[in-house]
Design goal:
about 375 residues; 4-stranded antiparallel β-sheet; binds flavin-adenine dinucleotide
């Protein structure tokens, strides 16, 4: 299914597709059966190849040695990486453009540029046991003490906490009646893992719960300026929500192809299953919804590339995340149904995606929260303003 796309985006689409097909997909079942963990040699090879291809630098400004690709091309890359289960594509870190607005030169040199080189990995600590969806109600605190800040709080579901060397830590500043983001080195005294639950998907990246107990860090680790509050975390949300849309498109495309291939080969009553109208309807709904999803995801990326108003863009990214993640879940459900009992086996791609895609309706803001954002934006700005 071809949709309008710049030649640059198409070029990156091919690069990412080759990478996903040759480096990642062959290891999906092995990863699934080994808690998401692959032998070091394969993990390192995949990461190294991603760095060579420039994936760690696609959103980095050229002034800092990056590729500064338009978001359209970035979506083309992440869409192809979304074809693979087990988060195998999370094998490389990604420095994002907002980090270059947010961070001091020293912070860039110590944290962000090493990410671009593949030497550092981050994790993001926002969610808490109380405030989950309600990110405005965070309870973790950062209190100034001389040249330091002292951090306290409990952070839940910190993805890649087991692999990362630093945290983005979002906290309330009681003295300023504001919020801020901090860079915190993994291993700083006072940081403790208090739980490491298992989740439905099979990832090498865990999602531990951390307690920060009087964690003392230099004041220079604060990111941005007074008054910046949650603005960088919102930048992160916009980026991630758009890329969840991209990956969900890739996942749905793969599922449709795999389900169709299976239905073509499986004989029922002496004829291919794909000749049954009930099966064709499931595939037809899936491909129609994928078409709409791809158009909206690429359009949202291009509107950001054209410099769309940031509030309107925020709503668009929410629409993409909401619609496309839910679309991919519907497609995965249908794919399991088409595969029948085989679709319930852990070695089956539909079974893995059926579990793995579920979280895309929860993390980076649940579907309900995306609806709240879209609804509020519509009320404030009207239909032409979003
Ligand atoms: C695997 C995984 C990885 C994650 N990784 C990270 C991470 O790296 N960093 C991080 O900070 N967080 C992470 N999260 C947390 C994730 O962002 C939250 O789970 C999510 O934002 C929802 O918060 P909650 O779980 O507390 O649910 P709650 O906020 O308790 O919501 C429960 C239900 O209530 C609904 N609800 C809540 N408020 C409203 C409302 N106002 N109106 C209508 N319905 C509402 C929700 O939509 C949901 O259905 C991760 C979560 C998972 C599962």
């Amino acid at each position: 299914m071809q949709i309008p796309m710049s030649s640059e985006a198409r070029r990156w689409q091919k690069i990412a597709r080759d990478y996903a097909d040759d480096y990642l997909q062959p290891h999906e079942v092995e990863a699934e059966l080994n808690d998401g963990v692959l032998p070091d040699a394969i993990t390192n090879r995949n990461k190294q190849r991603a760095i060579e291809l420039g994936f760690t630098a696609i959103d980095v400004p050229k002034s800092h040695g990056g590729l500064e690709l338009p978001l359209e091309a970035q979506v083309a890359i992440w869409e192809q990486l979304g074809r693979v289960t087990n988060a195998l594509s999370l094998c490389f870190p990604e420095a994002q453009s907002w980090m270059f607005d947010a961070c001091s030169e020293d912070q860039l040199n110590r944290y962000i540029l090493p990410m671009m080189r593949g030497e550092h990995k981050e994790c993001y600590a926002i969610t808490e046991s109380g405030p989950g969806s309600d990110v405005a109600g965070l309870e973790a605190t950062a209190e100034r003490d001389g040249e330091d800040y002292v951090l306290n709080g409990e952070k839940w579901y910190v993805t890649s906490g087991n692999l990362a060397n630093f945290f983005w830590f979002q906290a309330r500043l009681p003295e300023e009646d504001d919020e801020a983001l901090f860079l915190v080195d993994q291993g700083t005294a006072g940081i403790e893992i208090i739980a490491n639950p298992k989740f439905s998907h099979t990832y090498a990246s865990h999602h531990p719960t951390y307690r920060f107990d009087n964690v003392r860090i230099p004041a220079t680790q604060r990111v941005g300026q007074p008054g910046d509050g949650m603005s960088y975390t919102h930048s992160w949300f916009r980026h991630e929500r758009l890329m969840i849309g991209a990956r969900s498109c890739g996942a749905a495309a793969r599922l449709i192809e795999e389900a169709l291939a299976f239905a073509d080969g499986r004989l029922v009553d002496g004829a291919p299953l794909s000749e049954k109208q009930a099966i064709q309807f499931m595939l037809a709904d899936s491909v129609t919804e994928l078409y709409a999803s791809r158009l909206m995801t690429y359009d949202a990326a291009r509107s950001a590339d054209r410099g769309n108003d940031v509030k309107a863009q925020h709503a668009r990214c929410s629409m993409v995340k909401l619609y496309v993640s839910e679309m991919a879940n519907r497609v995965a459900d249908r794919a399991v149904q088409i595969f029948g009992g085989r679709g319930y086996m852990r070695e089956n791609v539909a079974e893995r995606f059926f579990r793995e895609l579920r979280v895309d309706r929860i993390w980076e803001g649940t579907s309900e929260i995306q609806r709240l954002i879209i609804g509020r934006s519509l009320k404030k700005r009207g239909l032409d303003g979003i």
